[in-house]
Amino acid sequence: MSLSDTHRTIDAIWRIESAKLIAGLTRMVRDVGLAEDLAHDALMIALEQWPQTGIPDKPGAWLMTTAKRRAIDLIRRTKLRDQKYTEIARSTDLYTEDDIDHTLAGEIGDDLLRLIFMTCHPVLSQEARVALTLRLLCRLTTDEIARSFLAAEATIAQRIVRAKRTLRDKKVPFEVPAGEELKDRLSAVLEVIYLLFNEGYSATSGDQWIRPLLCQEALRLGRVLAEIVPYDPEVHGLVALMEIQSSRFKTRVNSMGEPVLLMDQNRAEWDQLLIRRGLAALERSRKLGRPLGPYSLQAAISACHAQAPTVAETDWIRIAALYEALSRVTPSSIVELNRAVAVSMAFGPAFGLQIVDELGAESSLKGYHLLPSVRGDLLVKLGRVDEARKEFELAASMTLNERERKLLLNRAAECDSRISK
């Protein structure tokens, strides 16, 4: 394997293992900032050693063991009290190649949920929680997070640093809380899991359209949370949404890894087990007898797609109505953009375009590539292909995902072909 191939492999391993590393190390040192530094130290050692020694059979175990050794060395160097050192060392045995599979499936998984509850503590603002989540769990760069917030990179970097310092200074416990404290943090935790899933479902940047492992981890955490908090309808609603959305994974990309849009997917290949699990979770949410919240409403929209054999048989009028309800529960320009698509399918592209054009003045959608992308699609349906081509080219210039950029440029080229005929 060449040096560049090795580095690409290490980068892929890091994307998969980093959140688990940081969670496990946070349990040990009780400082999320220090845990992230220790994880990066292990990565640097891997980048130095693995090109010469080869990649270990279980790289996650290697990284965790290396990082924990660094942590214990740090504890020794800082000369903490013997009692404190003994307490920490006793609770953090080093990982071995023999027990890593069991540990990653159990203890580390619990640590990820504890990390999410820790970073969702009310001492942090909502913006700080989101930024820290995108950094620690989704592994987005500061620049990528800044783009999603439409903010300066320096602002986001300071926000993340302050958030980690606040968690350390306030000695926020690394635990899943109970009682009222759990209820108080639940909506923030659901938002974090939702963000984690969405980043896996449509990657913000990089060479891949989807990151299935992120979705799998978010879904697993959602299922665990549903066992802990069975009385909350939105927990079941989020699980339902993730189950149904996950059913489409096989059809979201073709054999070349290129995106396949919802309208073009082979519905016969959607995972029926996941759909049934999602519908059951949605029913549990409804049976709790409260009005549907934002996650349950989105799950109901996904259920409409999942239960329709074809695009033509989809109940677009119901989907448009559900988006209308969602916009009242959580007013959002992005929800309105999705409603425009549903309206166009239910009542015609001209009605959808009217909504999209009204959204053009929204500052929250400035730089959001899906606005010109949706507009381009509606213009194609109206026969205004020259205008559509420009919209697809604009959208391509705005996205950070290479697969999506290629898709949008291909759509622009298709418009060119139609114009030339």
TrEMBL record:
The Gene Ontology biological process annotation of the record reads:
DNA-templated transcription initiation
Q: Which residues form the signal peptide?
A: none
Entries under Pfam families matching the protein:
DUF6596, Sigma70_r2, Sigma70_r4_2
Q: Where is the DUF6596 domain?
A: 185-285
Please give one Gene Ontology molecular function term for this protein: DNA binding
**Source organism, top-level taxon:** Bacteria
- Give start and end of each RNA polymerase sigma factor 70 region 4 type domain: 115-167
Extract the InterPro entries matched here.
Answer: DUF6596, RNA_pol_sigma70_r2, RNA_pol_sigma70_r4_t2, RNA_pol_sigma_r2, RNA_pol_sigma_r3/r4-like
Q: In this protein, which residues make up the domain named RNA polymerase sigma-70 region? A: 23-79
Q: What is this protein called?
A: ECF subfamily RNA polymerase sigma-24 subunit
